[in-house]
Amino acid sequence: MSLSVLSPKRAPTTGQAAPSALYDVPGPKARARHLVYGVVASLALLALVAWVIHLLVDTGQFAYVKWRPFGYVGVQELLLRGLGNTLKAFALAAVLALALGAVLAAGRLSEHRLLRWGSTLLVEFFRAMPVLVMIFFVFVALQVQALPALVTGLTLYNGSVLAEVFRSGVNSVDRGQREAAYALGMRKTQVMVHVLVPQAVRAMLPTIISQLVVALKDTSLGFLITYEEFLHAGRLIAINMDYTMPFIPVVMVVSAIYIGLCMLLSWFANRVARRERGNVKNEAVPVGPAEAAPTMPGTRM
């Protein structure tokens, strides 16, 4: 719900670029120059990709003997089991990190000084600690199993980062929204839930998804503590074959699946963002122009 008053905006003339406060609108020469830059950069990228493919073909990385292991049922089951373990660790870490981030962000936005200072200390500490150090500490020092240790490390780090994302998103909402909500008699919790958070979500969503993608990729650290995730399964395939080591094919397969998962997560985020933009609860309500109030009988204008 937005409490802002919409002012009429004049639509730009057809064929004319909308003005921007951040940069000057490029003219015809600048657009032509940008097109040339884009074509040159695309050709350079295609040349680089072609060179890499040539090197892979030249070193025999596409030979049948290196790709034959992926046709074995045991290898396929190993990869699927590793992928399932990766998704399980990511799902647990994502849910817990979002919850932890919301709690720490609420603490940092609290009016109570002790709670605010404590939340700030936790956020700064876990943001500064390397993820691998936290995972090893939980796994070795606390004698925790591999999956809980991995999820704990990912939750603490990503939750502290998301706490700053949530806090910044809420603070980015126009101050007038908060003041108008208080003027309507809303309590602080109602203002946060019904006014600030719905507007902040649209600004926070890209950063939240980026951080979740980081959490998804960081699940690969689990192979260092013998957690049988996707990268661990690929490593077993690469080093335990009797014939030529299919290291590069394994890297190509694992990388392609990781990229596909990240793209799927981004697609889901864009879909949610479009639904949020189309939600009438998150749109500003137009208010008509002020009119003169009717006068009381016996008074003059």
Descriptors:
single chain; 301 residues; mainly alpha; 10 helices; 0% strand
Outline the structure in words.
- The protein is mainly α.
- Helix content is 68%, strand content 0%.
- It is built from ten helices and no strands.
- Helix 6 packs across helix 8.
- The longest helix has 36 residues.
- The radius of gyration is 27 Å and the shape is flat.
Number of helices: 10
Overall mean pLDDT score? Answer: 80
Taken as a percent bin, the fraction of beta residues is under 5%
Terminal CA distance reads 38 Å
Sequence of secondary-structure elements: HHHHHHHHHH
- Count of DSSP E strands? 0
Unreliable segments of 5+ consecutive residues: 4-16
Topology:
Blueprint: H1 28-58, H2 64-67, H3 73-108, H4 113-128, H5 131-141, H6 146-172, H7 175-183, H8 188-218, H9 230-239, H10 247-277
Helix pairs in contact: 3-4, 3-6, 3-9, 4-6, 5-6, 6-8, 7-8, 8-10, 9-10
Concise account of the structure shown:
With 301 residues, the chain is mainly alpha-helical. It has helices at residues 28-58, 64-67, 73-108, 113-128, 131-141, 146-172, 175-183, 188-218, 230-239, 247-277. The chain contains ten helices and no strands.
